[in-house]
Specification:
Structural class: alpha/beta
CATH superfamily of the largest domain: NAD(P)-binding Rossmann-like Domain
Number of domains: 2
CATH topology of the largest domain: Rossmann fold
Strand content: 5-15%
Number of strands: 7
Keywords: Oxidoreductase, Plasmid
Order of helices and strands: EHEHEHEHEHEHHHE
Strand order of the largest sheet: 3-2-1-4-5-6-7
Number of helices: 8
Organism: Ensifer adhaerens (Sinorhizobium morelense)
Low-confidence stretches: none
Helix content: 40-55%
GO molecular function: oxidoreductase activity, acting on the CH-OH group of donors, NAD or NADP as acceptor
Shape: globular
Largest sheet: 7 strands, parallel
Protein name: SDR family NAD(P)-dependent oxidoreductase
Family: Belongs to the short-chain dehydrogenases/reductases (SDR) family.
Length: 260
């Protein structure tokens, strides 16, 4: 099988939600391709991630700590940055939010998910745009659940549908400025967030986590659970010249679970 090599030397890439999971894997993919990489997250774990990545790639990976639900904080955090060539809007939160839950805390969870996944994506994009020139690229992490739905994940799924709609609107709004906007829609990936959802699903249904996982993987055409590092290549592709004629599109990366 052939290999595809990407070269992002001389380009600056900002990746949100990059202290672990998909975001970190994507940031590492861009760093391996020669990009200057800045990673952002709301927790202090972002500094350890940056240190480890800097050691791995032999050059500085910059870290920013910011709650993306605070527009003023996002603006202040991004203000010192120079040019941004590629923005990866990856930060997100996934939790179960059953509408029948009698505990009112479900409303707080619903608001927090929506605030991060929907509002946060808007704030980061809005405040990153002054740093982007013609030829800039934005990639949004959506989900296969931006195309379908499952019970009890109302906030997460609604926010991911919103992410996909946002991608399409931004593609139309920014096309005249020469900025392309696309989305990646991952299926089930072995991340901390996904495994927590699997655990919660197991607790609510009484089924074992392995039984649920077997069912999830069984719904795919290609076997096996996706790993975070499997996702880096589609982001690099969408940010590359190979996708120069693509905007407002969503790449499904789910081993054939959802064909849409």
């Amino acid at each position: 099988m052939g290999r595809i090599a990407y070269d992002f030397s001389g380009e600056h890439v900002l990746v949100t939600g990059a202290s672990r999971g998909i975001g970190r894997a994507v940031a590492e993919g861009f760093a391996a391709a020669g990009a200057e990489v800045t990673i952002l997250s709301s927790g202090r774990g972002i500094y350890e991630a940056a240190r480890e990545m800097s050691e791995r790639f032999g050059r500085r990976i910059a870290a920013l700590e910011c709650d993306i639900t605070d527009s003023a904080a996002v603006k202040a955090t991004l203000s010192p940055l120079g040019r941004i060539d590629v923005l990866v809007n990856n930060a997100g939160l996934e939790r179960i939010t059953p509408v029948t839950d009698e505990d009112d805390s479900v409303e707080d969870t619903f608001r927090r998910i929506t605030d991060i996944n929907t509002n946060g994506t808007f704030y980061v994009t809005r405040h990153a745009l002054p740093h982007m020139r013609e030829g800039g690229r934005i990639v949004v992490t959506a989900s296969i659940w931006s195309r379908v739905a499952v019970p009890e994940f109302s906030a997460y799924i609604a926010s991911k549908h919103a992410n996909l709609g946002f991608t399409r609107v931004m593609a139309k709004e920014l096309g005249g400025r020469g900025i392309r906007v696309n989305a990646v829609c991952p299926g089930w990936v072995r991340t901390e967030a996904a495994m927590l959802s699997l655990k919660n699903m197991s607790l609510r249904t009484g089924r074992s986590e392995q039984d649920l996982l077997d069912e999830i993987v069984g719904a795919q055409v290609l076997p096996g659970l996706l790993e975070p590092e499997d996702l880096a290549a589609p982001y690099l592709f969408l940010a590359s010249d190979g996708a120069r004629d693509m905007t407002g599109q969503a790449l499904m990366l789910d081993r054939g679970e959802v064909m849409a």
